[in-house]
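Researcher: Structure for this, please.
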Amino acid sequence: MPSRSGRSETVADNLLKAFPRTKDKANAGETKAAQVSKTCRLESPTRSLLMEAPKGIQILAEAGDIQAICRNELRLESKDGEISLDARRIRLMRLPEGKASSSSSSSSSSTRQTVYEVCVCPNGRLFLSQAGTGSTCQISNNVCL
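Model: Predicted structure, token format:
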């Protein structure tokens, strides 16, 4: 829809109208919320979306899940602190499995449950290795490349 200036309004223009920046310190902490039983959606279908705050950003779902889904890489980075995963269970799905080198021996028995250890490559990539009596993270294939 063309604006008064004659140019088409973008999603960003509409977001600026919905969430205007204010220099008024009394309204600086104002909350914008969706109507009851409506979904509040913040999106940028053609460009990136940036959220910035000098003292942090908190995402909270009191009664539901939070999902982060992307096409390529999902990156969590802390410049000066740490990244904590605090849960009863942490699942790392689809980790590659390294093949044990001939020098490492692992005892196998059909009555025992197969146990794996999580190994870390020098580049930070994680992989699984079938656990033995000692560390089995030394591998003979190229899982770390």
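Researcher: Any notable elements?
Model: The longest strand covers residues 116-120. The beta strands are 116-120, 126-130.
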